[in-house]
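User: I'm putting together notes for a lab meeting next week and I want to include a structural view of one of the chains we've been expressing. I don't have a solved structure, so I'd like a prediction I can at least talk through. The sequence is below, exactly as it appears in our construct file.
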Amino acid sequence: MLHNQTQNFNINHDLIQEKLSDIEKSVALIKRISSVGIDNFIKDEIISSGAKYQLILAIEAAQSICNHLAARVAKVAPTSYADCFRIMQENKIISGQLTPKLVAMAKFRNLLVHQYGKINDETVYNILTKDVEDLLKYANELKTFLRLRNN
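Assistant: Thanks for the context. Below is the predicted structure for the 151-residue chain, given as structure tokens.
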């Protein structure tokens, strides 16, 4: 049962759990995809397209949670996806170390969505192998935040 403090925020825990699951599933798939190595990743358009799609799904799930918590906890409407993560940091929902990484991911998601053909596959591969763990860190920080709110 939820405690009053969390109920006062009207946090939709089912939504957050669903989006956290989406992040974790996408990251797992991204890790499998990136295990083919950079040469195969760049050569095979199906593999690189699948990775880009999973990256978009994971970042959009992270942004969905962010928008929900910004509205419910911070009572602020973000002006952009990147701004949302800053609001989360200001309200001590996520750490200052993670914020710039998530802001960069939100901006990269916009590039993937709006300028898909202009994205260098080597850049995507580097993000998959070096930065995707930040989404799992985000998920863990959110779980910690929600656990503390429920106590």
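A couple of points you could mention at the meeting. Helices lie at 4-9, 13-34, 38-43, 45-74, 81-90, 99-114, 121-130, 133-150. The domain at 10-150 is CATH 1.20.120.580 (Four Helix Bundle (Hemerythrin (Met), subunit A)).

User: Perfect, that's what I needed.
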